[in-house]
From TrEMBL, chain A:
Keywords: Membrane, Transmembrane, Transmembrane helix, Transport. This is Metal ABC transporter permease. It is a multi-pass membrane protein. SUPFAM superfamilies: ABC transporter involved in vitamin B12 uptake, BtuC (SSF81345). GO terms for cellular component: ATP-binding cassette (ABC) transporter complex. Belongs to the ABC-3 integral membrane protein family. The chain crosses the membrane at residues 12-33, 64-81, 93-114, 134-158, 170-190, 221-242, 254-273. It comes from Nocardioides turkmenicus. It comes from the Bacteria. It is found in: Cell membrane; Membrane. Gene3D superfamilies: ABC transporter involved in vitamin B12 uptake, BtuC (1.10.3470.10).
Length: 339, 265
């Protein structure tokens, strides 16, 4: 089967649609999660959702919907524990994670369904996604994207500085719970794509990639959605290509590895940008001791002279062989002082 | 009790505040009149930051009554009249944000849900950045600013909402002198425009000439309320010295024996 034929089979087309939408929606929510410094929240919800899936398998109802209910409950508990800010908060969260995972495996055992069925949810099984599941995934993805982009001014303000947002009259608690619920929903839609144990990677890694390069929240949000889309579809295609060689590569792990590869590709650029910005950070605006440059200075510093220009109060210093040169105009013409 | 006229921006009567069960503020009265510039001073732990957080509704009162613009806090919804500048350390997120975006969130008190910025919003954001002298930095990331520049951005965010009452929590802490001067200039301009300003400060520095009235907190109570004091006065009068109990003779003797400058430590 050629690659083109592979993409024309219905299960692959369903997988592509799911990967496309989840790849956009999960990092959109993830941006707010990272902004709130809760990068591991997705993992926590993912662990709790395992119990939800198991309950669905046990009671022979849709695992998607039981996972939605349990994941939202878990996310709200995590948010409440966080808001209380108790010192033992992280221990409480850890116990919630373990309880979710252990409970899920335990209940699956009660149900008598083998571990293989649960594994579909733990590591993803985007190729077996049914039409009904695809419709749910599409609807929830669109809702997540619309809320994350449409309410971005409010969600940004609440996640950036909750105290300020409260004094500005925003319903901070409502928005915090909303972010937790959005996270729970994105965990559930991503569970068929990358699996509950890797779900957080699709929420966090695209944000980590783009924030190496961006300076604004808006660019980070949109960039993360683009990076998530590329990793998600790219990983699926990679898995499909590798499967043609006879390997049995699951799309979930390959999506996560493609995302991580993206991070390590971008990291050197980010490191270079950070170094460049640090070099150009303004010097403190104190009046320095002025000392004329000793040797003759035939070179004229300017915009395109190649020396790093750093703001220093009301003028610019040029970094010249490790010295800070500032131009002054004296009686005998222009000269350079060392600052 | 007489009803408060609506143009008294802040009135706190017999305010008690407990944080996780520990009494922090006790029986604090504070009235701020329109156009006043009030400095809340005192040592670390004296309750001055707790007080300003209480005035904006972040700490609930366990007893007493707080009115903003003549309305009890529970019934006060006109938050666009209030600008709050929190301590710098609390105001950061885990992803990049530009100066413009942070200041733009100051317009949320005027914006409706799901509406883009209008030109009036943009004008207010630009004007706020100009007041604090940060207009050239609008597209920088806040993470790349110095402490003093970040502080000015947080003030611009509060100003973008065009508040009548501005409350600032330690805006000068950890800010170098040129930035303190820039800050004093910005606040001076607001004061001239008739804004009411309440500011928490450990030391006033270049802000001193602006202050109309000083309130010194000690140990959760108001220790002084009157004409401005110099920084030296606040320390010399022992407002920030440890509180000595009468029955603790040895502590009192020790405190008396220490020369004043050392008590500040």
């Amino acid at each position: 089967m050629t690659l083109l034929e592979l993409f024309s089979v219905p299960f692959m087309q369903r997988a592509l649609i799911a990967a496309f939408l989840v790849g956009i929606a999960a990092p959109a929510v993830g941006t707010y999660i990272v902004q709130r410094r809760l990068a591991l929240m997705g993992d926590g919800i993912g662990h709790v959702a395992v119990t939800g899936v198991a309950i669905g398998l046990w009671t022979q109802t849709s695992p998607t919907w039981t996972a939605v209910v349990v994941a939202i409950a878990g996310a709200v508990v995590i948010e409440v524990v966080r808001e209380r800010g108790h010192a033992e908060g992280d221990v409480a969260l850890a116990m919630l994670f373990y309880g979710g995972l252990a409970g899920g495996v335990f209940v699956t055992g009660l149900a008598g369904t083998g571990a293989s069925r649960l594994q579909e949810f733990l590591f993803g099984s985007i190729l077996t996604i049914s039409v009904d599941d695809l419709l749910v995934t599409m609807a929830l993805s669109v809702v997540l994207i619309v809320i994350c982009v449409g309410l971005s001014p409010q969600l940004f303000a609440v996640s950036q500085d909750a105290d300020y947002a409260k004094v500005a009259g925003l319903p901070v608690r409502f928005y915090s719970i909303l972010v937790a619920v959005l996270a729970a929903l994105s965990v559930v839609i991503a569970m068929r794509t990358v699996g509950l144990l890797l779900v957080s990677a699709l929420m966090v890694v695209p944000v980590a990639i783009v924030q190496q390069l961006t300076r604004s929240f808006r660019m980070t949000l949109l960039g993360a959605m683009g990076a998530g889309l590329a990793a998600s579809v790219g990983g699926l295609v990679l898995a499909a290509v590798l499967s043609r060689t006879g390997a049995n590569v699951q799309p979930g792990p390959s999506i996560v590895l493609v995302a991580l590869a993206g991070f390590f590709l971008v990291w050197p650029i980010g490191a270079w940008l950070r170094r460049r910005r640090a070099l150009r950070a303004p010097f403190p605006e104190t009046s320095p001791e002025e000392k004329p440059v000793d040797e003759a200075h035939p070179h004229h510093h300017g915009e395109k002279c190649g020396h790093v220009a750093v703001e220093h109060g009301d003028h610019v210093d040029y970094i010249h062989d490790g010295h800070r040169h500032a131009a002054h105009v004296g009686a005998e013409g222009e000269h350079y002082d060392e600052h | 009790m007489n009803p408060v006229p609506a143009d008294v921006p802040v009135q706190l009567l017999h305010g008690d505040v407990a944080l996780s069960g520990r009494p922090v503020l006790r029986d604090v009265d504070l009235t701020v009149k329109r156009g006043e510039f009030v400095a809340l001073m005192g040592a670390n732990g004296s309750g001055k930051s707790t007080l300003v957080r209480t005035l904006v509704g972040l700490n609930p009162l366990s007893a007493g009554r707080l009115e903003l613009f003549g309305r009890a806090l529970a019934g006060f919804h006109d938050w666009s009249r209030v600008g709050y500048v929190p301590q710098r350390s609390t105001a950061t997120g885990g992803v990049p944000a530009s100066v413009w975006e942070v200041v733009a969130s100051g317009r949320l008190t005027h914006r409706k849900l799901l509406r883009p910025l209008r030109s009036a919003d943009r004008a207010a954001i630009r004007a706020a950045l100009e007041v604090v002298g940060m207009d050239a930095y609008a597209h920088r990331g806040v993470a790349q600013l110095s402490g003093g520049q970040h502080q000015r951005v947080l003030i611009a965010r509060a100003l973008a909402g065009r508040p009548e009452l501005l409350l600032l929590d330690e805006p000068t802490a950890g800010v170098d002198l040129p930035n303190q001067q820039a800050l004093a200039e910005a606040l001076g301009r607001l004061k001239a425009d008739g804004a009411t300003i309440v500011l928490v400060a450990h030391e006033l520095g270049p802000l001193a000439p602006l202050v109309d009235r000083a309130v010194v907190m000690r140990d959760g109570r108001k220790a002084y309320d009157g004409p401005p004091l110099s920084d030296a006065d606040v320390h010399a009068q022992g407002f920030d010295a440890a509180h000595v109990h009468c029955d603790d003779a040895s502590a009192r003797a020790a405190n008396a024996a220490v020369p004043t400058p050392l008590k500040e430590l």
